[in-house]
């Protein structure tokens, strides 16, 4: 630690590293269709706000409800997720993604998940999409 680096900055960097690892593992579960990889990532008091139905999306509360919803998506071989970008800032993670459900160009959407991680577990996932 240099004189210019405070303990708070070091802790924030460490927190960002943990957040990045968790968010990347979360995203990989969807890209690789491995729902079982989500088991160790979701916190007990997790809150999920889905992208649909508009305008606010369905809300899921608690580890089991969030895990069941996300596992259902991750297990679908018909859905192809691809991360466009993953960014982290402390306990917050942002996943910009694209979802395809066929080879047709029109059969895709782009979206973003705003994630929050505490103690190495996802405690919040807010999803948003661009609809045409």
UniProtKB/TrEMBL annotation:
* Signal peptide (UniProt feature, chain positions): none
Question: Which InterPro entries does the UniProt entry name for this protein?
Answer: NTF2-like_dom_sf, SnoaL-like
Query: Which residue numbers delimit the SnoaL-like domain?
Result: 23-124
Listed Pfam families: SnoaL_2
What's the domain of life for this entry? Bacteria
Protein name per the record: DUF4440 domain-containing protein
Q: Which organism is it from?
A: Sinorhizobium medicae
């Amino acid at each position: 630690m240099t004189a210019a680096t405070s303990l708070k900055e070091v802790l924030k960097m460490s927190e960002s590293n943990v957040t990045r690892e968790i968010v990347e593992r979360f995203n990989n579960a969807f890209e690789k269709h491995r729902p079982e990889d989500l088991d160790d990532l979701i916190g007990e008091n997790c809150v999920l706000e889905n992208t649909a139905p508009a305008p606010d999306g369905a809300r899921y509360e608690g580890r089991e409800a969030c895990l069941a919803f996300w596992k259902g998506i991750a297990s679908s071989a018909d859905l192809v997720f691809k991360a466009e970008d993953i960014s982290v800032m402390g306990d917050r993670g942002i996943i910009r993604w694209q979802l395809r459900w066929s080879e047709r160009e029109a059969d895709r959407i782009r979206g973003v998940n705003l994630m929050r991680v505490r103690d190495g577990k996802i405690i919040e996932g807010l999803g948003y999409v661009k609809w045409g």
